[in-house]
Amino acid sequence: MDAIFIPQLTKASERTEEIQVQEFLPNLETLTPVRGLIRIKHSGNYLEVSGKVETIITFSCNRCLQSYNHRLTVQTSEIIWLEEVSEEELDLPLEREVSVDDLVETLSPQGYFEPSVWLYEQMCLEIPQRQLCDADCTGIQATNSDVNHSVDSRWASLESLKKKFTS
Fold first, then answer.
1. From the CB of residue 116, how many other CB atoms can be counted at a distance below 10 Å?
2. In whole angstroms, what is the distance from residue 133 CA to residue 153 CA?
3. Nearest CA to 72 among 47, 53, 93, 45?
4. Which of 8, 11, 15, 51 has the fewest Cβ atoms nearer than 10 Å?
5. Distances in Å between the alpha carbon of 115 and those of 43, 95, 158?
6. Does the structure show a pLDDT above 60 at 85?
7. Among 29, 49, 25, 31, which residue's Cα sits nearest to residue 120?
8. End-to-end alpha carbon distance in the chain
9. How far apart are CA 73 and CA 60, in angstroms?
10. 67/87 Cα distance (integer angstroms)
11. What does the alpha-carbon distance between residue 113 and residue 90 come to, in Å, rounded to a whole number?
């Protein structure tokens, strides 16, 4: 997806551009291409960006370590403010106190909007933190043959120390 020159959006029909998405995103490993629609509307001093896309990603279950496929669907919208960044804002210290009002996305009104970067960020935000192949997944089951009561000789001194404290 090509970057969109923001001033050119004002000349588009209804100040809106719609992008049909059907491609693999760099740095996001998916089984299928990301498919859907992104809509960017220029509303004077902000961009209204919305999208509905989906793809299939392969995860490894956090409990049993088996691979499984997950349909990742993103339906989101965001307002991105258009304002020039002053030189003193660029020279900020690495650490500083940030107020809630500063937690907004801004772009230069004379700059570019990159739909592929925006879409990548939205897809990453939708990846589940807890990746389970099934809600009832019990994890890796230990069998009697997996349990070995003999101690590796390298751990023998630690095992004897453990016995001193437990007796």
1. 18
2. 38
3. 53
4. 11
5. 17, 29, 57
6. yes
7. 25
8. 68
9. 18
10. 48
11. 19
In this structure, are strands 67-82 and 46-60 parallel, antiparallel, or unpaired? antiparallel
Structural domain contains residue 145? no
Quote the percentage of the chain above a pLDDT of 70. 86
Q: Which amino acid is at 147?
A: V
Q: Is the pTM of this model over 0.70?
A: yes
> What was the pLDDT predicted at 148?
55
Domain assignment of residue 44, given as a range:
1-84+102-134
What lies within 8 Å, CB to CB, of 90 at 6+ separation is none
- In sequence order, which ranges of the chain are alpha helices (DSSP H)? 6-9, 87-90, 115-126, 156-166
**Listing from the earlier edge strand, what are the strands of the sheet with 46-60?**
16-23, 34-42, 46-60, 67-82, 106-107
Does 162 reside within a domain?
A: no
Q: Is 93 a domain residue?
A: no
Token pair, residue 78, equals 């965001």
* Domain tally, the chain: 1
pLDDT of residue 147: 54
Task: Locate 158 and state its tokens.
Answer: 């630690």
| Least-confidence region, from 32-41, 88-97, 117-126 | 88-97
- The closest of 15, 29, 30, 22 to 1, measured between CA atoms, is 22
